[in-house]
Structure formats: C-alpha cells, structure tokens
Automatic annotation (TrEMBL), chains A, B:
Protein name: 3-isopropylmalate dehydrogenase
Family label: Belongs to the isocitrate and isopropylmalate dehydrogenases family. LeuB type 2 subfamily.
Pathway: Amino-acid biosynthesis; L-leucine biosynthesis; L-leucine from 3-methyl-2-oxobutanoate: step 3/4
EC nos: 1.1.1.85
Keyword Amino-acid biosynthesis: yes
Lineage of the species this protein comes from: Bacteria, Bacillati, Actinomycetota, Actinomycetes, Kineosporiales
GO cellular component, one term: cytoplasm
Native organism: Kineococcus rhizosphaerae
Residues the record marks as site: Important for catalysis: 139, 190
Cofactor binding note: Binds 1 Mg(2+) or Mn(2+) ion per subunit.
Annotated keywords: Amino-acid biosynthesis, Branched-chain amino acid biosynthesis, Cytoplasm, Leucine biosynthesis, Magnesium, Manganese, Metal-binding, NAD, Oxidoreductase
Gene3D superfamilies linked: Isopropylmalate Dehydrogenase
Length: 353, 353
C-alpha cells in the first residue's frame, strides 16, 4: 500500500442516515477527479450499520473485516441509528474498524474557508489540524459494571495509554507540524488531574521534541484549549491529543469553522499496513436523512484526505479548490440551498482536470 | 449548618497567584453586604498552596483539614503554581478538599450579563447552570503507571461512577431545574462510547425524571454539547454531567459568557454535613499575579453563591446586582481598566443595603 497502484480498491461503507446520501456524492467527486488520470477506482460496497444489525444481529462480521482489510482504503459515511441501542454500532462497527485496522492517527483538519459563516464575531484565520490518537485512551472499551440496576451499581471506564501508542501518534504530530509553515505543536491533555496518563503524554512530547528542533511546542489543559478555540483559534497549528479530548475538541473546532457539515477526517495508519479510513466528522442526522438536504461537503473533503494519503496530492488539491470555490459561491449568494446530489454534481464538475 | 447563625465562620484559602488578590476583594464585598444585617463574618485564613509546599512539602495537613471542617463555609482564591510539579497542588489540595468534604455538586452558573463582550457573533440570551459531579468520574485519582520512563510504559486512569454518587447529583440537578422558570435538564455524557458509565448516568436520569414530571429532559453527547455551546447556548437551562466533562464544558461556557474572569463556582455539599467551598473558575494566572490587574468579579460572584447557599438570598441578589451594574458601566465606557482593589471597592460600595 506504499503508493497507489493504477487501480484503487476502495471499500465503501455508507452506513446509516445521511451517510448513504453523502457517500454517493463523495464517490461521484472521486470518480471525476481521477477521470483521465490513469487511475481507476474499483469499489466494493459493504452494507453495514443499523439494517444489517436488525437483520442479523451482527455489526462487523469477521469475514467482512477480513475482506475490507484487502482494500487500499475505506470510505465511510456515518454510523448510528436511534433504533439500535447506544454503543452497539459505535463500539461494534465504527470503533472496531478503527481499532482492528490500527488507525492510530485520527486526522481532523479545521480550516475556516473564505466566506463561510462562523458563530465567532472575530474568527481571524483558522487553519489547524488535530492529530487525535485513535486506538487508546478512554476509547479502549476497558470498562465494566457490577450490580447493574441496583443502588450499589459501580461502573468504570479505564483509559489505557502506552508509551508505544503515545509515542507513535506524537511523532506523527511532530512530522506534520514540521511540514507546515508555522511549525507549531500544541499538546492538549489534563496532566494536573490525570497525572499518570498526562505525564506520559507530556514526557513523550518532550522526548520527541528533541528530534524536531524546528517545531515550537506548547501545552494546554483541555479545559483551557476549549477557551482558546473560541477566543483565539488562530493560535493553533497542530494539536496532538488523546482519543476522547480529540473527539471533543474536533467537534468544537468544526463548530467554529462553519459547522460539522464541513469537517472531514481520516482514520490513518501511517505505517500503511492496513487500509486507512476516511469519513466526515458528522453523524447520521436521522432527522434529515433521506431528504436530499444533507451537505455532502464533509464527505467530499474526506475524499481529499484520502487522495492525499494515497500520494495523489494534485487530485486532493483540486477537490479542495472545488470546495473552496463552491463555499465562496454560497457566501456570495450565487447558489442557494441545493439538494445533496446537486452539490455533488457541482463539485464533480469542478474537479475535472 | 442548616441555616447560618449570626456569625459566619469562614475559612479563607487565598492560595496562589491572583488568588491572593481576588480573595481580598471578595471578602471586602462580603463584609459590606452583611454590614448592618446582624450577621458578622469571622474569617480564619489558611496559607495553603505553593508557599506551604515549598516550605514543608505539605499540601493539606490533616490538622488543617480538620480545622477547616469546623467552619460554615470556605472561600478559595485559586490553587497552582508553575514552581510546583503539575498535579501536586491540584490533587493534594484542591481536589483533596473537594473530595474530603464530599462536595458532590460543583455548581457553575453561566450567564451573559448585559453589555459583556462575548466571542460569539450572535449569542442570544445565555443563562444556564452546570451541575458538575464533584467526587467521582475520572477525577478519583484511581490511576497508575508501570515501567515508567521505558518504551513499555503503561499509564491508566480509571473513571469510577456509582449509582449512589450519580443519583445524588442528578437529583440535585433536577431540583435546580424544577426551581428555574424554564425547567429543563440536559444530561451530557458520551454513552455511545463510555457505555458502562454512560448508561448508568442515562438510566439514573430516566429514573429520577419520574420524580420531576415538570422538568423536560434532554441528552447530548459531550462533543455535540460543545457545538451547541457556541451555536445555540440559549438552549441550555441546567446541564448535569460528570466531573471531567463538567470541567471542560464550564471553561467553554465561561469563554462564551465573557471569559473566565467572570465565572463563579460553588463546591457544594447539599446535605450540609460539611462546609461548602466557593471559588472562581479561573486559575492562578501567574503571568499577571501581584500586579493588581486581575478582575476580582468571579471571586465576588462566588461570594454571591456562598450567600445563596447560606440562605441569605437577599444579600446574594445585591452582590449580583452590583456586578451587573458594574459590568454595564464597563460596557458603556463609564469605567476603564481599574486596579483589582478599585473594582472591589466599587462593588463593596454598591452592595450596601
Ligand atoms: C460516533 C462516535 C463513536 C465517534 C467518536 O466518538 O469517535 C464520533 O463522535 C466521531 O468523532 O467520529
Ligand atoms: C485546577 C483543576 C484541578 C480544576 C479542575 O480540573 O477541576 C480547575 O480546572 C477547575 O475547573 O476548578
């Protein structure tokens, strides 16, 4: 998987709710941007999510996981439905994919595109990336409960952090910071309370920093980081943080950069021993699903991350440029509310080389 | 401690950094508002924090904790200093007080006072209160590390949640919601990932809701809650949440309501078997300490919470009104930057009955 062959074998998991609709548009744009490039896309679609669960009780059959593993990359729409008990699809499908495929870098860029409305009065320039750890922390599923449903119930959740796991994601964060013009890395944690995990993160950042003398290093407690995300988001360049803090910070970051409808993500295995998975940050939005009113932009931007990961930087840049132009047209009032497919059509037309 | 006697025995812990300066002003306002009320304040000051730690290596001697326990309430400035290893004062003093005195309700109102600048372009009316659990969750200090400093280090943090602990804080949240005009309670957690702890919280809210049929109940994942705090903060009335999520949400809430300089908090034991503790949400701000430029408003508003807790609602309302008026004068440009003591003087003059 070091570099993409002529044929990109893509596993597609549209999932639930608006995941279905936005994935169609993302694939449309992917096909368009690769048209004439000599690269072709071969997709295998996997019908995972609420429907499969209701039909069979399964979330991610082992055989499907093994098939998915044989692909070059995965495109995912969104997972989750109110008809399924909370946690079943999240833990049994989405997180299972991230963990089984060792997606230890959950990459979430936050950029305020020109003209995009933001809830902030004075946003300044916002362009940072969160490198969220993806395979450890409070997400490991190492919790339990006893005496459930009694007045003596005890429920625990264990955050597991290893030197191995922290170091590899911290090193990835530094490498990304070193490759960016501002070369700044901010560690976000809560080491004054979560002293064991926090100090492991802190010591690791200090140690890896020695390998990246050009990168300026900064630290914020997670509570303070949320303040700066609304008062001075320009201060951030690369944020490296754990799985749960990263979940929280990236939704907030999406909100200040125009909303979850524009936020893309990559669940990346930088070692390329498994396919990486690209998905919008947004959820399944069951309230608007099936109505062709969801904005597919986040899914399309996830395709840009996918192309970048596969070494097709030019194609990724064309997708980014098409989105930037489309958002500018919205800001200028040149286009109004469009069906999901119309946004996809416009972007697909715009990315052609 | 059910109701305040004529003499309020107040333990005062100014702490570190600007904690020292803001506490002086808070006490000034407290004395002024009770002047002529028949209530008098008897303060015992405890010099805890970085200085004690450097002198003796102690953070909270048992004998001091026992003395503090004998008071009606505690006023705290702020704790923490860069000269002390991270976590030592936080865990050994601040959290030790909260845990030892069973402050299970960490009460944090968020209100956008008229005229106060906010980073939000269109804030709307903001007036909610976060009921943050104070004695459980990831804050219990139930973590550890093995093979520290080696490539095989493992560090864990355990979030402990009990039916007993969750139920009492949830019930407090419902009681507060029932007493407010909008009567709405939002549970914030992450039960799709932290399934054991999250489902305990969720089931508890469902069960207690039956006792409060007038209160509308809502649920948000913590990541989504951060989005609404910047896109639609008016939707919140009472938020009930765990210790760590509450820490994060209340700093963000402070940011959108004019900053951490205005955010007050109470560490409350509603059972009144121990003294409750009132403190500004802000930290010690070592960079501006000792310069008389810190805003004492958050400490003064913490005094209002203290008075309310002691059943002196009228006095509390006078403090609130004085702060509201002072903030309006700032907004109108009638007062500029003033030394910390001048703000305290102005508020003290304004609260006199
Ligand atoms: C759906 C949920 C399990 C997931 C997460 O918490 O990681 C989502 O919020 C995200 O950020 O991708
Ligand atoms: C100083 C720190 C331990 C504390 C906390 O995390 O509770 C602070 O952030 C707060 O919110 O009071």
């Amino acid at each position: 998987l070091a570099r993409m062959a002529d044929t990109l074998r893509l596993a597609v998991i549209p999932g639930d709710g608006i995941g279905q609709e936005v994935t169609v548009e993302a694939l449309k744009v992917l096909a368009a941007v690769l048209d004439g490039s000599g690269h072709r896309v071969e997709t295998t679609e996997y019908d995972l999510g609420a429907r499969l669960y209701h039909r069979t009780g399964e979330t991610l059959p082992d055989s499907v996981l093994e098939e998915v593993r044989g692909h070059d990359a995965i495109l995912l729409g969104a997972i989750g439905d109110p008809s399924v008990p909370s946690g079943v699809l999240e833990r049994g499908l989405l997180l299972k994919l991230r963990f089984a495929l060792d997606h230890y870098v959950n990459l979430r860029p936050s950029k305020l595109f020109p003209g995009v409305p933001t809830p902030l009065a004075d946003p300044g320039e916002i362009d940072f990336v969160v490198v969220r750890e993806g395979t450890e922390g409070p997400y490991v599923g190492n919790g339990g409960a006893v005496r459930v449903g009694t007045p003596h119930e005890i429920a625990t959740e264990v955050s597991v952090n290893t030197a191995f796991g922290v170091e590899r994601v911290v090193r990835d964060g530094f490498a990304r910071a070193a490759a960016r013009p501002r070369k700044k890395l901010t560690l976000v944690h809560k080491h004054n309370v979560l002293v064991h995990a926090g100090h492991l993160w802190r010591r690791t950042v200090e140690a890896v920093a020695a390998e990246f003398p050009d990168v300026a290093v900064d630290y914020l407690h997670v509570d303070a980081a949320t303040i700066f995300l609304v008062t001075d988001p320009s201060r951030f360049d690369v944020i490296v943080t754990d799985n749960l803090f990263g979940d929280i910070l990236t939704d907030l970051a999406a909100a200040v950069t125009g909303g979850i409808g524009l936020a893309a993500s990559g669940n990346v295995n930088p070692d390329r021993t498994t396919p990486s998975m690209f998905e919008p940050v947004h959820g399944t939005a069951p309230d608007i699903a099936g109505q062709q009113i969801a904005d597919p932009t986040a899914a399309v931007l996830s395709v840009a991350l996918l192309l970048d990961h596969l070494g097709l930087g030019d194609a990724a840049a064309r997708v980014d440029a098409a989105v930037t132009a489309d958002l500018a047209r919205r800001a200028a009032g040149e286009v109004g509310a469009r069906p999901t497919a119309a946004v996809g059509d416009a972007l697909a037309a715009a990315v052609v080389a």
